[in-house]
Amino acid sequence: FFHSVVELNRSKKYDVAPNSNPGGAFSADGGEVLCLHDAFAAMIRAIFSDLDGTLVHFPVWFEQHGVQVISRDPEQSRIVVRSSRGEERACRLLPATTMYDGIVSERTVELIDSLRKEGLIFVIVTGARKSTLLQRIPLLPLADASVGESGSRIYVHDVLDEDWAAQLAPVCGPIERELPPEQRPEPLWQFFRLLLMQGFKMDSRSYYGCFRVDAKGDDTMERRLRQFISSELPPDLDWAINLGKFDFFPRASGKHNAVIYLQKRFGLRPEECVCLFDDDNDLGMAQQCGVHLLPALTSRSVERAAAENPTWQVASRSGEGVFAIEELLEQLLQRVRAEHVDDYNATPPSPRLHTAITKDLN
After folding, report:
1. Could you give the angle at which helices 351-361 and 2-11 cross, rounded to 10 degrees?
2. What's this model's pTM, rounded to 2 decimal places?
3. What are phi and psi of 195, to 5 degrees?
4. Residue 55 CB: number of other CB atoms within 10 A?
5. Which helix (H) or strand (E) holds 248?
6. Arithmetic mean of pLDDT, 93-114
7. What is the rounded distance in angstroms from the CA atom of residue 198 to the CA atom of residue 188?
8. What's the rounded Cα separation, in Å, for the pair 157 and 73?
């Protein structure tokens, strides 16, 4: 029986391009889907997405690629951008942060809503502090879960995941505790004070399971910080570079561990998951996913990783902000719908095979 079904699936014809990714790939020029999936490839069930540089875009970056802001209305949280091709997009203007105006296009929100209607789980994974994450959530696409503070804070259906927080508490303390960092006794905050005494520029505002060190623009300071990390970082802590800044958090946390935890909670396999990302601190979570989509290459390390992984899909409009992420989401939606149609229309066993199966079972 098993061998008969295997042979039936192997005989099915698929539109597979030469050298294409067997799990499904997009054309290099951002065109139509090259292949859907073979008989045994996993269907996509979830998306894990970074925010800044991936879903959320900033003029300081996209203006370098010919995209311009043509109108801005802070009172209505609205902004309109225009590409070098003359395309215009209405966008949501997020609360100002250290990166200034952050925007999400309405089309991006529509595409993610459509993907969720197809049954996909959508998860936001960001290094953002608590206050930034909570201020942004009402303006972002609806998500099934949101991860903040470089993995240390998880909300599932807008409810704080207390089990996850409890796992990290011995290293960072209670995730909702209001206590000055100078008075927090856990290892994370001991290291915070050690760095503070070394004269580094520290950022702990609205951080509870993570903190940030800003050495951006000072090569001497960055070299000294790296040397200090190499010699003094406690074994139960980890770090990552996020937008040129250094984030420190419990080793059991980090974006990659948060993704693994949520995959288990939602019953997902890595090969069923898409990662949307652009920066250094996303590489760990990218390793936990089977499909990799990049709207930009924000750092040299991500550029190298993309060059070393030819199945990773970089947007043909890389760097163009909302236009790049929309390109990838459009293609992903095409693929998901094609997978669902293909799955629905899967050829049932022929009457002859059904008779053979029945005889074997009897």
Report:
1. 160
2. 0.83
3. -65, -40
4. 26
5. strand 245-250
6. 89
7. 16
8. 30
